[in-house]
């Protein structure tokens, strides 16, 4: 299998290789785009059994770990349970990404089942991502000020990275307040409702982005998901205040949700190079600003599960299910010439990318 030059370098050299990529004016690699379309035509159908089994098993393991963290008598057993819960529930949560791209007729009932089992109990109903993530994939919006999931982090001040991570630590508290307090109040105060929809109803990192009111079928989906999350948040706070749920158990829940959010935030840091300065890019330039961490390597299965280790490839083929991305990568890597842009978005590890990003911010002082 053909690999990129960066794949053969130690982490210390990855930063220098990445830094030489310039996005402005990069033309489309027509051969790459044509191969991506032609070689993967048979990979677009989701495997229903795999989706359900993977999601249900991840959730079951995660909730078992969470229960252990909440109620185990031994602190060490509780910590082990917590670690298992973070990793398993993180994997279950990331099916929200698949829900956003799926044709729901190909996997009937999955969105409803995921929301009932994962989205609502973890205060991450799918409406928080649906309608947001697709904008990130829009040809003319990626990397611009209209992209809800993009900030030029590599060109921002050094303090932005720790702040970026701190926000994720506070995420479960913010979600509790959003659903237990702001949702009910916004039903009474229309101006607050407009604010809640625009600013506090999406998993976005661009603070300038404002969301529009939902319409049609999505409005109905939004309503029942928000209602479910609000009832869950109010109940969780109520049983804790009443002493029915021990404070330790409540704090364990908060810690597990926060740790999953931090893990996802770290993954987000290396999902792109964050080099764009706000201009529209070609598809190839968008691909080069994104990151694959392909096989071999076990750790990406933990920090970038559900196909997200192939994030750059996903930007070429957003409709390919997560379980087919590995095969799509193998086909393209074998078929495309070493000079193809395809090989330039493949990197060996998380650490080199984090170092490169940190170095980029240090140059902005």
From TrEMBL:
PANTHER family: DELTA(5) FATTY ACID DESATURASE C-RELATED (PTHR19353:SF19), FATTY ACID DESATURASE 2 (PTHR19353). Keywords: Membrane, Transmembrane, Transmembrane helix. Residues 75-342 form the Fatty acid desaturase domain. InterPro entries: FA_desaturase_dom (IPR005804), Fatty_acid_desaturase (IPR012171). This is Fatty acid desaturase. One of its GO terms (biological process) is lipid biosynthetic process. The chain crosses the membrane at residues 49-67, 73-92, 112-129, 163-189, 222-244. GO terms for molecular function: oxidoreductase activity, acting on paired donors, with oxidation of a pair of donors resulting in the reduction of molecular oxygen to two molecules of water. One of its GO terms (cellular component) is membrane. The keyword Transmembrane applies.
